[in-house]
Amino acid sequence: AIDEIGKIVSTAERKWAITNLGNSEHEQDSNHWWKCICECLEELSNKTSFSTVLRISVVATSGTLLLLDENLEPLYPAIMWNDKRAVKEAKQANEVFTKHGPNLNLEIRPTFTLAKAMWMKHHKPDIWAQTKFVVSAGDWLISKLTGENPKTDFTNALKTGADMTTKSWPATLSFLGINTEARQRFRVQFYTFIKKRVPASI
After folding, report:
1. CA distance linking residue 110 with residue 162, whole number of Å
2. Helix H or strand E segment including 164
3. 120 exposure class (CB count in 10 Å sphere: 0-12, 13-18, 19+)
4. pLDDT in tens, 112-121
5. What mean pLDDT do residues 66-94 have?
6. Any long-range contacts for 45-48 (C-beta under 8 Å, 24+ apart)?
7. Does position 199 have pLDDT exceeding 70, yes or no?
8. Per residue in 164-177, pLDDT tens?
9. What's the pTM value of the predicted model, to 2 decimals?
């Protein structure tokens, strides 16, 4: 917790490890993230009154993939930012964007959320069939805190194939099997958000 002049008022933290599956594959249990966040918020509430809280900021790695069902529940462990399993999918995505456009002015890499989503579609079709939202870590955590459907920021959108010139999801994503209607809207203020409610579990 930080006051209006940037002074740290109180702190709480939890730690956990990344599961290394070999072959440059790294995953984490996203439900464990949420459990730790709720514990930290409860700990902070015992130190600082939440009645004075103006904003909560969420900081998370871009490129981390979560697939959510219609209730915003994760269907599979989070594929982490440093996971490089989606080499073939990244190559395919670059080829499709080169052919159909638009020019994203970057090379899609195996660590990008888009390539990982394509990998899940190819290798875990049963999970993909249940997927309502393709999101990054911060997108999901903000949804959990606000109770709203996912919205994303520009950095996470960039790694999911968004066109930064038009701030939109290009139709080219449909050639890669990504339903653009299921993608999140952009948040205008992408670095913080106004707190709407405290998690019900606290």
Report:
1. 16
2. none
3. buried
4. 999 999 999 9
5. 96
6. 45/198, 45/202, 47/1, 47/9, 47/10, 47/12, 48/1, 48/9, 48/10
7. no
8. 888 888 889 989 98
9. 0.85
103: which 2 tokens? 């020019």
Q: Classify strands 185-186 and 151-152 as parallel, antiparallel or unpaired.
A: parallel
Q: What's the burial of 74, exposed, middle or buried (CB within 10 Å: 0-12/13-18/19+)?
A: middle
Q: Which residue has the higher pLDDT, 50 or 111?
A: 111
Task: Read off the DSSP letter of residue 186.
Answer: E
Tracing tokens 């194939």 back to the chain, one arrives at 161
Listing DSSP states for 25-87 in one string gives EEEE-HHHHHHHHHHHHHHHHTTS-GGG--EE-----TT-EEEE-TTS-BSSPEEPTT----H
User: What's the chain's average pLDDT?
Assistant: 85
Structure tokens at 153: 């920021």
